[in-house]
Amino acid sequence: xxxxxxxxxxxxxxxxxxxxxxxxxxxxxxxxxxxxxxxxxxxxxxxxxxxxxxxxxxxxxxxxxxxxxxxxxxxxxxxxxxxxxxxxxxxxxxxxxxxxxxxxxxxxxxxxxx
Amino acid sequence: xxxxxxxxxxxxxxxxxxxxxxxxxxxxxxxxxxxxxxxxxxxxxxxxxxxxxxxxxxxxxxxxxxxxxxxxxxxxxxxxxxxxxxxxxxxxxxxxxxxxxxxxxxxxxxxxxxxxxxxxxxxxxxxxxxxxxxxxxxxxxxxxxxxxxxxxxxxxxxxxxxxxxxxxxxxxxxxxxxxxxxxxxxxxxxxxxxxxxxxxxxxxxxxxxxxxxxxxxxxxxxxxxxxxxxxxxxxxxxxxxxxxxxxxxxxxxxxxxxxxxxxxxxxxxxxxxxxxxxxxxxxxxxxxxxxxxxxxxxxxxxxxxxxxxxxxxxxxxxxxxxxxxxxxxxxxxxxxxxxxxxxxxxxxxxxxxxxxxxxxxxxxxxxxxxxxxxxxxxxxxxxxxxxxxxxxxxxxxxxxxxxxxxxxxxxxxxxxxxxxxxxxxxxxxxxxxxxxxxxxxxx
Lengths: 114, 443
What we know:
The structure holds two protein chains of two kinds.
Chain A: H1 3-18, E1 23-24, H2 25-35, H3 47-56, E2 60-66, E3 75-81, H4 83-113
Antiparallel strand pairs in A: 1-3, 2-3
Helix pairs in contact in A: 1-2, 1-3
Chain B: H1 3-9, H2 23-49, H3 52-63, H4 66-139, E1 141-149, E2 161-168, E3 175-180, E4 186-192, E5 195-203, E6 206-214, E7 217-220, E8 224-226, E9 233-241, H5 244-248, E10 252-261, E11 271-272, E12 274-280, E13 286-289, E14 295-299, E15 307-311, E16 323-325, E17 328-339, H6 343-348, E18 350-358, E19 371-375, H7 385-397, E20 401-403, E21 409-414, H8 417-441
Parallel strand pairs in B: 1-7, 1-8, 9-21
Antiparallel strand pairs in B: 1-4, 2-3, 2-5, 5-6, 6-11, 9-16, 10-12, 10-17, 12-13, 14-15, 15-18, 17-18, 17-20, 18-19
Helix pairs in contact in B: 1-2, 2-3, 2-4
């Protein structure tokens, strides 16, 4: 996939995953990559720059939770959507819908003509 | 190497802590977050493969380079702080440069202003000097006058002494200057303060007087036209009729004449008299005294305030036929009697003077002036109003003495009774006072 399309799309997918509930990096990556069925062919690590960027933009808020002792007593960083993040997600959904409709319309017309 | 160690290897300690936070905390958060992810992924792969090495390779394949990811996260976290610090640093540098620039500009402006101020001061001083020069010409006056002989268009006179004297308009100190006419017959005065001055000259027994106003700047005065007078000597015979009572006092009689040129000799100009004295000895002989003053005022001890006249009798030169300058009119101005109070006074030439003088007989000033009578420097001891009235009428009735070259001139004076009585009375009174003073003092 074109990296220019990927940048904005990954952020929207992260917001979409967190709209379902708070989550941490590994879980978010599994959800995004799993539900996209490997389409994006992303490295799991590449999600973290997007997560931190959304955090700096105040679209996400982070908090730490001590993980289970069975997992070595590590700290785990959870993310949650902020109100600003929710508004941004709504805006991105609408934008994506218009984009998809526009692209589909063009592709569909071109397909008819062709 | 554990995941934590591998991630930490990609994060070097930051030389600049993030704004509002702890760089070490940010670094620890990144390591913890990525370690948690890798540990989770490792457990997943181990469940699938059971081989730790294969699981580790699979984790790294799906995650990417942990060091690079950690480094990017660190850079992104620090970038804002670093940029903020850089912006702050650049801002401070710009402000410092601006301050230095402002200081330099201000310093240059001050130096420029100082130079301008000095230039302006120099200009003001120069203008002040010019102003003073202008002011000087504005507050000083110069006068030029030419002297001609006989008429305004007549021949100019070189080496003629002309003077001015008077006061400035603002009543400064009186100023008097004498100058001699140059080859062109002109004379210049000044600079003097503008004011009212008397322009005067004297020659051949004639005085010239004219009041002039000198205004700031150059004043071209009306020329002085000197009369052409042939002042040739002419013998004059004087005759004095001395009353008996004065003759007994061995008194001298002194007559003051105002001498003025004949009117037909005056071309122009306000000419004034010059005084000529004629002294009559007790025996009636006459002597003409010109500029040599033979009378000296003296204060006598014991007669406070009564001045005496000392007559330099050794200088008296009485002749049978006195000579006066012709072409002049002689008018009697005053008459004095000089009488000694004691024989010793007579020997020492010390006399009490009784004088009757007409003021301003020339008529140029104070035409209403009258007769004054003085005894020494005092008023007479008797009432003088009657004497003044009678005496003025007597002076007015006296004819002038016209002395003309080529013709004989004679003048006869009869001492009037009013003057003889007054003088005799005063002499007797002071003789008695002096006698009493001598008796009281035992001298």
